[in-house]
Amino acid sequence: MKISREDVLRVAELAYLELTEAEMETYRAQLDAILEYAGKLNELDTTNVPPMAQVLASDQQAEATLREDVIQPCDVARDVLAHAPGAEPPYFRVPKVIER
Amino acid sequence: MSAWTIQSVREAIAAKNVSARELAAEFYKRIQERNPLLNAFLTLCPDRASTQAQRIDGLVAAKKPLPPLAGVPVAVKDVISTRGIRTTCGSKILENHIPAYDATAVERLEAAGAVILGKTNCDEFAMGSSNENSAYGPVRNPVDTGRVPGGSSGGSAAAVAAGLAVAALGTDTGGSIRQPGALCGIPAMMGSYGRVSRFGLIAFASSLDRIGPFATSVRDVAAVLNIIAGRDPRDSTSVTTPVPDYLSEISKPVKGLRLGIPKEYFGSGMDKGVRPKITAGIEIFRKLGCQLLDVHMPHTDYAIATYYIIATAEASSNLARYDGVRYGVRVNGDSLLSMYRKTRGAGFGAEVKRRIMLGTYVLSAGYYDAYYLKGQKVRSLIAQDFRDAFQKVDALLTPTSPVPAFRLGERVDDPLQMYLADIYTVTGSLAGVPGISVPCGKASGKLPVGLQIFGPPFGEARVLQLAHAFEQAGGANL
After folding, report:
1. CA-CA distances (angstroms) from residue B243 to B112, B204, B231, B330, B365?
2. Which of B361, B371, B412, B422 has the highest number of chain A CBs within 10 A, making it the mutation to test binding with A?
C-alpha cells in the first residue's frame, strides 16, 4: 500500500478540497492502484534522459513568438463582475481574511 | 433527412436553394427532436446563430463573395469560451459561467461564416473517455444509444454523427477528439501542438491540450482546420509555421509513401472485433501503393502511466483557479479557506477531484522526483520514439481505440481501466504530433472502428492526404 489515509488528508489539504469520509477511502484505494500502476516507469533507466520541458522546437517557443508589448483596450471588467459570485463592483467580495 | 457537407451547404446557399436562416432552423429542429435522448448539446444559442445567418443571407442578397464556411451550422465543445454564451466545461462549478470573450477558434469560425448552434456536452473539464463524467448527464452514442460516444468531446462527436451539426470543435488532451470520433464513426483530428490557438480554451493540461475539428468527411475536417489553424498573438504557444491550404493538399497522391506499423500498438489489449478491421484498413494503403514498414516504438507501453502523471499534475495547477472568488459557483464558509474548500469540494465531480488529488500528490514534496520528474523524462523517451520512427517513415498507422463503443455504466467503477481506453492516443499527445482518426469499418458489422494516422510535427497535410485517400478507397465500409 503506497497511499495511507494520512496521505489523502495531506493532499486534500494542499488542494483545498473538502472531502467526505466516504470519498477519503475511495480516493485512497484508487490513488493507491493508480500509483502502483505508475510504478512501472521505474522499469526504465532514465539517469541520462533530460525531462521534456518543452513540446515545441526551440525556434517555435514562446521567446521566439512573443508579441509586441503594446497596450490594447480590454474593457471587460463590467462583464466579468456581472457573473462573479457575490461581487460588489468594482470589487470581488470574499470572507474577511485579516483579523483585527 | 439530408446529409449536409460544408461544400453542399455553401453551394445551396450560393444558389439560393436554401438560406442560412432556413438551414439553421432545420438544424435546430433536428436538435429538438434528437437531443432529449442524445444529450449532445448543453446550451443552444439561437439568437447568436440567427444574427450570423442573417449576415450570410445579406452577403448572398448583395451578391458579395461568400466566406469558406458560409452558413455552415457548427457546434462547439463547452470547454471553449463563447462571449455571452454559458460555458460550463461540463462542471457544476461553472454552471453559471458566462465568458466575457470568445476563443480565437470561435472567432475564426464565425469570421469564416460558420453559424454556431450551441455548446456541446463533455466530460467535466475534458477529463474522461466516455462522457460519463459530465455533471449534466452522459451523452448517448447515436450509433447505439445504449453505448457511450467516447470522450471527452462526446457531445461534439455525437452531434456531428447524428446530423445535428455539419462540423464541430472538440479538444484533445490524451485522445478526447480522436477516440470519440472513432466510437461515433466520423473523422476527427488533432493538429500538432501549437497549430491551433488555444486562446479562450479553458485549460486542463497546458502542455497537452489542443483544439481540433470533427466532421463527416476528411475534406470537411481539412476545411475547418484551414480556418482555425495559424498563429495567434494572444497564444504564445501558437506557432508561426505557415499553414498550407489543406483543401488543395488533400488530393495529392499517396502512392510511394512509407507508412510505419508499430507492433506495440497491436498487443493483446485490442478487442477481437477491432483487430480484423485495422488489418484490412492497413491493406487498403498497400493497395493504394504505399510502402508498409514495421517500426519499433519501445516506450509505448509506458505512455498511460506517463500521461496520467503529467496531465493530472498540470490539471491540479490549472484548476486551482476555481476557488469561488471570481467566477462560477461559491459555497460560503466562515473563512476564506473554508470557502475555497467547500466550493471545490461541492463544485467538482468525482473524476476531477480524483485527478486533482493525484496531480497534487505527484507534485508534492517528497514525491516530485519519483513521479512528476520521472514522468517528464519518460515523456522525452516517448517523443524520441516518434522522432526515430519519422526518420524511416512518412506516417504511422495504428488503431485509435482498443475497443469500440462500450455500454453506458460498464466501466465507471474502475478509473484505471477507463484510463487504459486511451492507450493508443496518449502517445501522440505526449509527443506533440498531429493525428487523425478515420472510420475503418464496423466491429461485428455494427460498432464503428477508427484507424489512427500520426504524422510528424506540422505534417497535417500528409495526415489529411492519407486519411482522404483511405476514405475515398472505401475505408469506412470495410
Report:
1. 16, 26, 9, 43, 43
2. B361
